[in-house]
Design a protein that fits this description.
alpha/beta; 3-stranded antiparallel beta sheet; 19% strand; globular
């Protein structure tokens, strides 16, 4: 079995860590959201790629889930003292990575190549692929106007009311050219924010076309537990867009290609309406506070995936 794991953000990275501990480097490839990418202070910043890279390298900050452990903040403090734009927190070690990535891109490397160089330097063995080397930008339509993702998410701390979300450039983006879809036997959508972390990837036409193939098993792990998201603005966004905050809504969001769905054990009764949609559903522990929980969910996911067929 070769697995394609679609991921973004902290929740997705947690399951990715479990999958990486269960599967060898040639058995799984991580396809990562780049809709969050942006330029700041002249640097190319790829937050979701970095979150996954730091997590797989076991150097992420455990308290935040993003950024690096034992980080220092001299740069951003000095920037603030100078009156510069300090709303986006750049730790000193993190800054070095962004500067190096930007140099690699300036030299003509693709984002995929730059990601590989950085992952290898941090001794990450598993394959981390940006969803595309073409730019895709998540844009939030809000009650205060159109906002780029980082301005909505970080600068405004998700306070504006979301009225719509666009993935600019996704319709023209090419799926990562290094991704050999012919080798994939199972697709896992990690418990990432569907609207901010997964949809920018699914908006790439070649990927959605692949997921709809009759012989491709696709399962998703829900980011919703007991009617709320454990982290991030998923709950807020769903409410503002007029959706019910529940597992059935998430399953319906992916229903045109979904084969299987995993909910938390506390939501086991939610499987009944989901299975009425023609989607197989199981309940397992999806709250991953420990490495052991991440590994167990990865095993449960793979065992379930092995039973799925379209």
């Amino acid at each position: 079995m070769r697995v394609l794991a679609i991921t973004g953000g902290v929740g997705g990275a947690k399951l990715a860590v479990g999958l990486a501990k269960v599967l060898q480097s040639n058995e799984v490839v991580f396809l990562v959201n780049t809709g969050d990418d942006f330029r700041h202070l002249g640097l190319h910043i790829s937050p979701d790629l970095d979150t996954l890279t730091y997590s797989l390298a076991n150097i992420s900050c455990p308290a935040k889930g993003w950024g690096r452990r034992d980080e220092s903040w001299t740069f951003v403090k000095t920037l603030q003292d100078l009156g510069g734009p300090s709303w986006f927190q750049l730790g000193d070690q993190d800054l070095a990575l962004h500067a190096y990535r930007t140099q690699l891109l300036t030299e003509g490397r693709s984002l995929t190549e730059a990601t590989q160089v950085i992952a290898e330097a941090l001794d990450v063995k598993h394959s981390i692929l940006p969803a595309s080397d073409d730019p895709v930008a998540t844009t939030v339509e809000s009650d205060i106007g159109e906002l780029s993702f980082q301005h909505y998410f970080v600068k405004h701390q998700c306070r504006p009311k979301v009225q719509g979300i666009r993935y600019v450039g996704a319709d023209r983006a090419r799926l990562n050219l290094r991704l050999d879809l012919a080798t994939i036997s199972l697709v896992v959508i990690c418990p990432s924010n569907p609207y901010l972390s997964v949809d920018p990837i699914l908006a790439i036409p070649d990927l959605r076309k692949f997921l709809r193939k009759p012989n491709v098993a696709v399962l998703a792990v829900s980011p919703i537990v007991r009617g709320r998201a454990l982290k991030g603005p998923t709950t807020k966004i769903m409410t503002e867009l007029g959706y019910n905050v529940d597992n059935e809504t998430i399953a319906l969001h992916y229903a045109d290609f979904l084969t299987g769905f995993i909910v938390d054990g506390a939501d086991a009764t939610d499987c009944d309406p989901i299975q009425e949609l023609g989607i197989k559903c199981i309940a397992r522990n999806t709250v991953m506070h420990t490495t052991e929980a991440r590994v167990q969910l990865a095993r449960d996911t793979l065992d379930f995936g092995a039973t799925l067929s379209k």
